[in-house]
Amino acid sequence: MSLLLNIDTAVDKAIISIAKDGEILQEAVNNEQKDHGAFLQPAIQSILKKAGIHLRELDAIAVVAGPGSYTGLRVGMATTKGLCYALNKPLITISSLHVLAWQAIQQLSVTKNDIPTLYCPMIDARRMEVFTAVYNEHLKTILEPCALIVEKNIFANQLLKSEMVFLGNGAVKWQQLCNHENATFFKAETNALYMSELTYSKYLQKTFANIAYTEPMYVKEFYNNSF
Asked: Got the DSSP string for 207-218?
């Protein structure tokens, strides 16, 4: 049995959850990005109390490491590492893009003309830029996480060969430019279940991060402290 605390403050919607063997026991949600820092500690205490679990009973603590909001990532990582240090618990990190892709893979069954399906989560990085990556149906990385300027030909070659599912809060920008028949747009929001499934898998495989050296996955240099 495993009890994991999952922390996701990477985007505009923050979710904190307690999961037992990948199944959600309790969760708390905050929709105000600027309040993620104030939200975290009370939310953690609240869901632990509701679940009847003490911090020391946790087997590991997991955090979405990015990409996403610079401030949100720092808040989530600092809180998680502090708890791991204080409680001597393993640290699990996961990509926000990975979680979104996994959600689409689990919720959708997309087939068109017997061609492969790729999954492309996009997180808004302001202006016409997004944080993105591409995965296949087995969650294998096809395109590593990167910052990409959205313009009409960005996935032209891939769309000739594959069905592509685009999702995330950055996909709206791309949807305005893309009308390719092999492009599908899927509305997805931050969801505790899909993070918990992936962090549980990492826990079983003992894929733990180094508490001392792990940093948020910013993908690009930070310039504007409003994001």
From this structure: --B-TTT-----
Q: Could you give the angle at the alpha carbon of 94 between the alpha carbons of 170 and 89, nearest 5°?
A: 145
Contact predicate 87/59, CB 8 Å = no
pLDDT digits (tens, 9 = 90+) for 143-174: 999 999 999 889 999 999 999 999 999 999 99
Domain range for residue 194?
Answer: 3-95+190-204
Domain count of the fold of the chain: 2
Cis peptide before 145 (omega within 30 of 0): no
The answer to the question of residue 219 being in a domain is no
Could you tell me how far CA 73 lies from the centroid of its own chain?
Answer: 11
Q: Where are the beta strands (DSSP E) in the chain?
A: 3-8, 14-20, 23-30, 60-66, 91-95, 117-124, 129-136, 141-149, 163-167, 183-186
CATH number of residue 118's parent domain: 3.30.420.40
**Tokens coding 223:** 């310039």
